[in-house]
Amino acid sequence: PDDEKALCNCAVGHLLSEQLDDARIYAEKVLAKNSANGQAYSIIVRVNGNRDTLENLIASVPEPYRKLPDVAFAFSQIALEKNELSIARKWLEIASENKTHWQPP
């Protein structure tokens, strides 16, 4: 597929099937088309969640896109999995606050 939404759906399918390398590849294809796609960033964060520190995961997403609801929620989920509850709450609040108010840079 070449359509951004179709590529994202492929990435999600691979993520759910635990085919993490393929999920990352499709998410990166999405970002090559649209660098503001929060779903693609969130997939990459989830792919790398067990491979990296939360700090590095956050740093891997360009600052303007960290507060995208999908991305902030992914950070929250990874923080929860790492038992960093205060950080999980912080990112969940950011995701909730920006659900309808986030504007692209």
Automatic annotation (TrEMBL):
Name of the protein this chain belongs to: Uncharacterized protein
Protein source organism: marine sediment metagenome
